[in-house]
Design goal:
The protein is built from eight helices and no strands. The protein is mainly alpha-helical. It is elongated and about 195 Å long.
């Protein structure tokens, strides 16, 4: 049979080698394909694992962020509460300090007022004591004191008042006596019996009264008594009355 293969031109050893090579190649191919399938499966599993890992990491990161936010919120709330507490304590302390300062200021003010009052009273007492001692010394020396001088001044004022009253009484009496004498007003140029009667009715009887007329008196007499506007100034009643009074009584007005 070997001969037949040889006669046919086919070497059995070479054939065996070829078969073995084919089988080996098939096995290698099978192994490669299997490894390739395993690799793809492993890659797919790796992708899934990586995806799950990424999702797990993202979840962990999110959880960490949420936890950090919660902790931050708690921390901020705690800080706010502590700040409010500190503010209240500070305000209370400031208020207590202000009230304490006000009380101290009031106490100091009261002390100052008390010292001022005592000092004023002391000065008043010293001044009174000094004046009393000076008054006693002056009295021993025969010198009038301030009270004596004030009494003398008061008496002088009373005496002056009495003198003025007597002078006024004498002047009024003189005026009355001269008024009752009744001068002849017709001696004044411009005054006739009719005007003299009107003047007497108005209470004017003497040269002195006419010589003492003011502008307001002249305006009133001309408009209400004699009814002659400008008559008194034009005829110079005042000047004539002064001359007649000086001639009759020897007195210049």
């Amino acid at each position: 049979m070997k001969l037949r293969f040889i006669a046919g031109g086919v070497d059995p050893i070479d054939m065996t080698v070829r078969v073995f090579a084919l089988v080996l190649a098939a096995k290698v191919t099978l192994v490669i394909n299997r490894n390739a399938g395993d690799s793809q499966q492993e890659n797919a599993m790796s992708d899934v694992t990586e995806k799950k890992g990424s999702e797990s990491v993202a979840g962990q990161v999110k959880a960490a962020v949420d936890k950090a936010q919660k902790e931050t919120g708690k921390l901020m709330d705690s800080l706010v509460k502590e700040s409010e507490k500190l503010r209240d304590q500070t305000l209370k302390l400031a208020g207590d300090t202000v009230e304490d300062m006000k009380e101290r200021i009031d106490d100091v003010r009261g002390m100052v007022e008390g010292v001022r009052t005592k000092a004023t009273d002391t000065l008043d007492n010293l001044e009174q004591l000094f004046e009393e001692r000076v008054a006693r010394a002056l009295k021993r020396l025969g010198v009038p004191t301030r009270d004596d001088l004030q009494g003398i001044a008061k008496r002088l004022e009373e005496i002056n008042g009495r003198i003025k009253a007597l002078a006024n009484d004498r002047q009024a009496a003189a005026m009355t006596s001269r008024t009752t004498e009744k001068d002849d007003l017709k001696m004044i140029s411009g005054i006739g019996p009719v005007l003299e009667g009107k003047l007497n009715t108005d209470g004017i009887f003497t040269y002195r009264q006419i010589a003492a007329l003011t502008d307001a008196d002249i305006d009133r007499l001309e408009s209400e008594v004699i009814n002659f506007s400008g008559r008194i100034r034009r005829d110079d009643w005042i000047g004539q009355a002064g001359e007649l009074h000086a001639k009759k009584y020897g007195e210049q007005l």
